[in-house]
Write a structure and sequence with these properties.
Oligomer: homodimer
Number of strands of chain A: 19
Radius of gyration of chain A: 24 Å
Number of helices of chain A: 10
Strand content of chain A: 25-35%
Strand order of the largest sheet of chain A: 1-2-6-3-7-18-8-17
Distance between the termini of chain A: 50 Å
Helix content of chain A: 25-40%
Order of helices and strands of chain A: HHEEEEEHEHEEEEHHEEEEEHEHEHEEH
CATH class of the largest domain in chain A: Alpha Beta
CATH topology of the largest domain in chain A: Aminopeptidase
Largest interface: A-B, 48 and 48 residues
Low-confidence stretches of chain A: none
CATH superfamily of the largest domain in chain A: Zn peptidases
Shape of chain A: elongated
Amino acid sequence: MSAPDPDRGRVPDLDLSSDVVALTRALVDIPSESGDERPLADAVEAALRALPHLTVERIGNSVVARTDLGRPQRAVLAGHLDTVPAAGNLPSVLRDDRVHGLGACDMKGGVAVALRLAVTVPAPTRDLTYVFYECEEVEGDRNGLHRIAAERPELIEDADLAVLMEPSDAGIEAGCQGVLSADIVVRGERAHTARAWMGTNAAHLAAPVLQRLADHTSERVVIDGLEYREGLSAVAVRAGVAGNVVPDECVITVNSRFAPSRSPEEAEAYVRKLFPEYEVRVTEAVPGALPGLDRITDLVAALGATPRPKLGWTDVARFSSLGVPALNYGPGDPTLAHTAGEYVPVAHLRECEERLRRWLR
Amino acid sequence: MSAPDPDRGRVPDLDLSSDVVALTRALVDIPSESGDERPLADAVEAALRALPHLTVERIGNSVVARTDLGRPQRAVLAGHLDTVPAAGNLPSVLRDDRVHGLGACDMKGGVAVALRLAVTVPAPTRDLTYVFYECEEVEGDRNGLHRIAAERPELIEDADLAVLMEPSDAGIEAGCQGVLSADIVVRGERAHTARAWMGTNAAHLAAPVLQRLADHTSERVVIDGLEYREGLSAVAVRAGVAGNVVPDECVITVNSRFAPSRSPEEAEAYVRKLFPEYEVRVTEAVPGALPGLDRITDLVAALGATPRPKLGWTDVARFSSLGVPALNYGPGDPTLAHTAGEYVPVAHLRECEERLRRWLR
């Protein structure tokens, strides 16, 4: 279609006074695949600017809105605006007390809860910083939270705690593990397979590397009563020159998930010590986030859930690296994220909204 | 250039009465990359048709020329016309008593020797079948010898022996080993690496496969006094779904080189027995060629070289599968084949021509 679009540039309406279910559906129905968040960011920005108790800032397609009531404590409520690409799951559908549709679970339900709090709690018991950000589903250097932390850290680093409203089955997932990726390089010497003995087969030499990984027992680290179970996995093995050539290189990519009490440097040293006789190339190393439960006891009590350890890496680690303890708490089953059939239960939406409001009033 | 080419369709001249060095250079100077052998095949066909003692047949871009003298024995002299792609090594250069240029070694030097015999030995002591064929350097189903064996087997299967004039340092390389390629499939179960214990890592499970290959001792099989040293090599290892996923499959491709006394079926059974607990997918299995030295004692005596075993697979196996014992004998160092700097020593050209002529007169 090449005809001019009369809606081009028009900001979609978001009615924050509507019920959390209707609001979730309205958010789902404004498509916002990573990189194309502008219409949704415009709508969120416009809706928040209409609230006199908030100071609103725009950074790229991320929106930050802050109360400034001089409270002794400040909390961040954060959610990303973007989704993975659509998979035949637009527009939203309400069925069986669930909102179905792209991003319903990950994580427009959580965004709806936060927006409802923004409009219904004008004078919270602690100051609030709402962060609605872009590009969470793509590479880290495009991540809106990363950009805010780099360009406008003052907007978020003065908080005492952060709630990242990623789907967590309306339970508390505290902290997160760190991630290290590294290539272990096994070298040999090429030869024609008809004269294999003239070479040294790097694939054959890789056997002890893989066996060491198979035999490896990862630790279970308990922090604030939460058990973080570590892991060290080969995620890729690559060798091969041609069908008649003894390969001279075999690269094993390992992925380490390490407890948030360890630094990336410690995780790297651990892998190097496990494979002292091979070249180890670290390709990624990011710290986890400590649960910091001792600093958020009142929040945990208000949410009425027993904290669980978060094993995957999430953006809570970005807050943690700014010195802000953070947890995941949001509506939706995290295992439905990125599935075509994703949905968020209405009961989760209402429970999360109600419990957070109780904490803030 | 889009102007009409006045030479289009013209058959290049080949003067078979010229010296073997000049003839090698003339052959090199008619480009014949695999698939583009027509001009060279035309030239060879025209030159051979001018010889009244030969009956010439054309099959695709392959040329077969036979004497029919009623001799008690018939021998094939065969060489492929095609080359790998040019690498800045055209036209030919004569320097330091070597002919340099694309295909000089592999194997226009050998073709030149055969053409010189065709013109200089009109009444050989055994009947001769000259085979100059296309597409040896590419996939086997395009191979000209394969096509002749399939479409016109009577042209070659009545021979008692075959000399394939591939570069062999002017020595005798007898028989060749068989080749078997197989994928060994190791299966596991996917999981997110943050919960690696919920899956089964196929890459880790591949360790014993690679270790078994590392520990494997291949046999040395002696046939007609020649030692064929077998080999079993991993030539590729592939595993990997994504950087945060425990892989559910690891495929190890093995390449077996087996003695010509074994059948492909025996080679396959051997690999299956070595890896009984894994899926084994055979992707290629071709027999080798027995040296058959007892049937070619006079040829060996005439060539004055001690036969060596051929370890790589060559087209001698195609003759062997037709019941025709075959050997490699030709000018040039085989390790220079497919190199930009390939050349053939003038001394090799002259020696091969002289020794074969002695055998045929």
